[in-house]
Amino acid sequence: MLPAYLHRFRPRLADTLADYDRRRFAADLGAGLTVGVVALPLAMAFAIASGVKPEQGLVTAIIAGFLISALGGSQVQIGGPAGAFIVIVYGIVERYGLANLLISTMLAGVLLFALGWLKLGALVRYIPVSIVIGFTNGIAVLIGLSQVKDLLGLQIDKLPADFFTQIRTLLAHVDTLNLYALVVGLLSLLLVVLWPKSYRMDLHPHTWQARFSRWAAHLPGTLVVLVLATVATALFELPVETIGSRFGSIPQSMPPLALPELSWASAKQLLIPTVTIALLGAIESLLCARVADNMSEFQRHDPNQELMAQGVANFAAPLFGGIPATGTIARTVTNVRAGAQTPVAGMIHAVVLLGIMLLAAPLALHVPLAALAGILLFVAWNMGEWHEFTRLRDYNLPYRTVLLGTFVLTVVFDLTVAVEVGLILACVFFIWRMGQNFQLRVIDTPLPEAVTALSLQGALFFGSVGKVEALAESQTAGTRRLVLDLDRLVWMDTSGLDALRQLHRQLSRRGIELCLTAAQAQAASLLRRSGLEAELGPRGAIADRAAALALAAPVSPPEPLADALPEAPLAGQFD
């Protein structure tokens, strides 16, 4: 039996096959065929934009897509190369080379599997939505910028990875503009935008326009663009760069299994790329799984099993030259809308891609890169949540700062720096807000003479102790007893405990008795274990609020505490 802190490896596929029948297989077959056709142009486009060969995108979609569906914790999620990885992969290839990208992906797979095995999948949900929106929009901008070269047909051997350097390089080569490429790219983009979408289908088939829209919506616009642009390029012999002219032919077979050469020196320098791939893969896959949950009526996904499947897929795909993979929202949504019932649909989608690669790979030679650029511009636009920028005025300053800061840092620096700074900012703002929410309220009830009573409300922690530390000096000369009601104190840490201990000492020097009452379970346990409850004595720690408030101040001031009292215990000892 596994320890409680480890997650049992049980794919969702095992549960769904228990009552699998012909009807569900027919639904999965139709969905798998549809998603496979949709994934074909995207897999090649994402690979090319990432700085690798198109067949590496296909291999990733085949191997990783199959494993993510077969071993994952979601019933309908589709995995494969994703637009979010384009900027990351391109930067790693530029800085470390292709071999180290494969190693980083495999190491990220190990890390993803460990996160799921240790039941840490839920931690990804702790990343604030402002950070997710910020880096998602930033990646979308970088994807769009990276496609300008192919959209305009500029003669640039290698586009740099740095944002500002990219802009300078593009501007320096504007004079090499290819009007044929620009026309092909813009027409491709326009057709993808205007092509009927399944989620916009007219459900009233009374007119021929409605019937055509219903029929066309079942054909992915990206595939239509790919076919038309390829036919036009070959038929009219357009002078534009194609997959064949840049990469040569796509092999009609799966690449052989090959283990990348791994050394300790390489592993050490690949720490940041590995963490970046694992972090982005975890976020994207679990966000995608949540979208699928909201769209379907199936059992909610298992985040830990999903991360374990992502880990296996990202470890296996590079053995065949594949790139990082994760859950993909566009293909998953297509899978759900096409009627998928089980993970078998995702497995069929991978088999469909394998069949296309084995049988029709030579047809990709004439695919114009400008058309793929138009498709990726559409993907980048749909990827970004641009409306969030117009709604910023409706949110507070911390939210705006984190979102805009993450967005700018993603564009100017990289995703790792953006997420790190974003999390730091989010934590700082959270601490500040929690400290502001902590309140000291005067208890408005008849009290004995020389007695003051205050209610502590909120969390007493290191970010709010300043309000307690100022209490001793704020007491009037006639006060002989201060009662602090802890009934609404939701949480207290050792810094708060130390603040109460120091308050007790300061009040004692002024001849004022401190009483803590009605402490909740967490605070009461901390007071007892730290010894402060014993230091306060029977008059200083009273569980009953009414009795504590009714108790009169001592006739003579309490004796000041001796300086030899033990210091506060080490912070964190009693948490």
List keywords for this structure.
single chain, 575 residues, mainly alpha, Transcription Regulator spoIIAA, 3 domains, 6-stranded mixed beta sheet, two-stranded antiparallel sheet, 27 helices, 58% helix, elongated
Characterise the protein shown here.
This protein has 575 residues and is mainly alpha-helical. Helices cover 58% and strands 6% of the residues. The protein has 27 helices and eight strands. It has helices at residues 12-16, 22-49, 54-71, 86-96, 98-117, 129-146, 148-152, 163-172, 179-194, 208-216, 221-236, 243-247, 264-269, 271-295, 303-316, 329-337, 344-360, 369-383, 387-390, 397-412, 415-437, 465-469, 471-474, 494-509, 521-530, 532-536, 545-550; strands at 79-80, 326-327, 439-442, 451-460, 481-485, 489-492, 513-517, 541-542. The strands form two sheets. Strands 3, 4, 5, 6, 7 and 8 form a six-stranded mixed β-sheet that branches. A two-stranded antiparallel sheet has the order 1-2. Helix 5 (98-117) crosses helix 14 and helix 9 (179-194) packs antiparallel against helix 11 (221-236). The two termini are 31 Å apart.
Average pLDDT, rounded to a whole number, is 89
**Tally of helical runs:** 27
Ends apart, CA distance between termini: 31 Å
Low-confidence stretches: 563-575
Q: Round the Cα radius of gyration to an integer and report it.
A: 31 Å
* Percentage of residues assigned to helices: 55-70%
Largest sheet: 6 strands, mixed
Class computed from helices, strands and strand pairing? mainly alpha
Total number of beta strands: 8
* Global shape: elongated
Give the domain tally.
3
Which range does the strand content fall in? 5-15%
